[in-house]
Amino acid sequence: MQGVSITVEGPGPPVREIDLPAAEAAARALLVALGVDLSTPGIADTPRRVATAYAELLTPVPFVATTFPNDEGYDELVVARDIPFHSLCMHHMLPFHGVAHVAYLPGERIVGLSKLARVVESFSRDLQVQERLTMQVAGWMEETLRPRGVGVVLEAEHACIALRGVRKPGSRAVTSALRGLLRDDARTRNEFLTLVR
């Protein structure tokens, strides 16, 4: 299919229907259960704001990835570094945030660079664990692009570690997913890891 662009919709996070009135009622009940006086100025509208905020954080922005033929035969790494992201921990519903480093070794097709950031954003709009998010981004790239290799590294600080439990602010979790030549070829793997350090 040389010279032809293809628009593909890769697998994405689940599309959910959000019941804002029910979410607002639940937020109101939680605040009351926590002893919050909802008649306090500035708090009366908090249940609505909480429901709206979580709806936004859990709604992926749809996108389609247009891929293009690799007419020039580019056969080196394509790397997008330091892509900011934020998500919600599925265990505590507290945020975690950091940067993603995403790379692929093109095969017959390439993709617009902005789509590398969009796929990270799309999968991060869910209740997540960092390990799964890392694997989802790598899986999407592998399925959508059919590249010779994929590398994804996520570095994030988790509020559930920084603000509660062990209370260790500033600590960061690092996860990786390597596929194809980025996993099997030591030279390519080392190049990728060097580029994202």
Write up what this structure looks like:
The chain is an alpha+beta fold. It has two domains: 38 residues, no CATH class; 128 residues, GTP Cyclohydrolase I, domain 2. 37% of the residues lie in helices and 27% in strands. The protein has seven helices and eight strands; from the N terminus they run βααββββαβαβαβαα. The strands form two sheets. A five-stranded mixed sheet has the order 6-3-4-7-8, sandwiched between helices. It has a three-stranded antiparallel sheet with strand order 1-2-5. Helix 1 crosses helix 2. It is elongated, with a radius of gyration of 20 Å. It starts with 5 loop residues before the first strand and ends with a helix.
